[in-house]
UniProtKB/TrEMBL annotation:
<dbReference type="GO" id="GO:0005524">
    <property type="term" value="F:ATP binding"/>
</dbReference>
<feature type="domain" description="ABC transporter">
    <location>
        <begin position="6"/>
        <end position="243"/>
    </location>
</feature>
<keyword id="KW-0547">Nucleotide-binding</keyword>
<keyword id="KW-0406">Ion transport</keyword>
<dbReference type="InterPro" id="IPR003439">
    <property type="entry name" value="ABC_transporter-like_ATP-bd"/>
</dbReference>
<dbReference type="InterPro" id="IPR027417">
    <property type="entry name" value="P-loop_NTPase"/>
</dbReference>
<protein>
    <submittedName>
        <fullName>ABC transporter ATP-binding protein</fullName>
    </submittedName>
</protein>
<dbReference type="InterPro" id="IPR017871">
    <property type="entry name" value="ABC_transporter-like_CS"/>
</dbReference>
<dbReference type="GO" id="GO:0005886">
    <property type="term" value="C:plasma membrane"/>
</dbReference>
<dbReference type="GO" id="GO:0006826">
    <property type="term" value="P:iron ion transport"/>
</dbReference>
<keyword id="KW-1003">Cell membrane</keyword>
<keyword id="KW-0408">Iron</keyword>
<keyword id="KW-0472">Membrane</keyword>
<dbReference type="GO" id="GO:0016887">
    <property type="term" value="F:ATP hydrolysis activity"/>
</dbReference>
<dbReference type="InterPro" id="IPR051535">
    <property type="entry name" value="Siderophore_ABC-ATPase"/>
</dbReference>
<keyword id="KW-0067">ATP-binding</keyword>
<keyword id="KW-0813">Transport</keyword>
């Protein structure tokens, strides 16, 4: 049995008739962190939206736990897969706890259904896991960038799905907050076995925190595998048009990309 809960078969995605992804076959390993990398406009975010059922395939299909994702109800998908889009914005004044509680909406069978002990337990667990208990009653729009990202991640955790999709979760964060968010995602993977797919721009962070890299260019997968297999000088030149040297990261031993000057 293949070790994947999310895969594509001959997937093609398009915006306004313009092809972005074409004929893509991709397996997302269960229980691992997969990073989608590539230059701007290569199709990373488009692919993530396709995987999340936010963009309907032009051709082909996305399979979630063995079934075509578009043949499953929105509620059923939301109980299996959580997505954090790029730059989400909370309504003004919404508290952290109320934001996190929105992750339980896929389990509310009707507007009349009361809040359950299980709902409460999972919201509390999400706040604890993301170290947000002391900020639970703060308005989301008063938090720092790293705290806001943790709050949104907590919402997806309260959704209680085994698969998390994140579109550039470190964008606009300073280096300390980037590491904070990536360490949290690493803990969720290691301690809870969550399958995580995230779009990242920083190749060295992708190598350090992901088990698998998917390198895209012009909507095509140019390389897919472990960081050691994918992160080569030839791949960086082919995908990014950049000369570099790849050396071992002196801290963790993963590939480290050192760009060379163009002149």
């Amino acid at each position: 049995m293949e070790n994947t809960a999310l895969k594509t078969q001959h997937l093609s995605l398009a915006y306004d008739g313009k092809s972005i992804i074409s004929g893509l076959n991709l397996l997302i390993p269960t229980g691992q962190i997969t990073a989608l990398v590539g230059p701007n406009g290569c199709g990373k975010s488009t692919l993530l939206r396709g995987l999340a059922r936010l963009l309907k395939p032009h051709t082909g299909a996305v399979y979630l736990n063995g079934a075509d994702i578009f043949r499953q109800s929105t509620t059923k998908v939301a109980q299996q897969l959580g997505i954090l889009p790029q730059g989400p914005v909370a309504p003004e004044g919404l508290t952290v706890r109320d934001l996190v509680a929105q992750g339980r909406y896929p389990y509310q069978k009707s507007w009349l259904q009361s809040w359950t002990d299980e709902d409460e337990r999972l919201v509390r667990k999400a706040l604890t896991t993301t170290d947000l208990n002391e900020l639970a009653h703060r308005a989301v729009d008063t938090l720092s960038g790293g705290q806001k990202q943790r709050a949104w991640i907590a919402m997806t955790l309260a959704q209680d799905t085994q698969i998390l999709l994140l579109d550039e979760p470190t964008t606009f964060l300073d280096l300390a907050h980037q590491v904070e968010v990536l360490e949290l995602l690493g803990d969720l993977n290691q301690l809870e076995g969550r399958t995580i797919v995230m779009v990242l721009h920083d190749l060295n962070q992708a190598c350090r925190y992901a088990h698998q890299l998917v390198a895209l260019r012009d909507g095509t997968v140019m390389a897919h595998g472990t960081p050691a297999d994918v992160m080569t000088e030839e791949m960086v030149q082919e995908v990014f048009g950049l000369a570099c040297r790849i050396v071992p990261d002196p801290v963790v031993g993963t590939p480290l990309c050192l760009p060379l000057a163009r002149k």
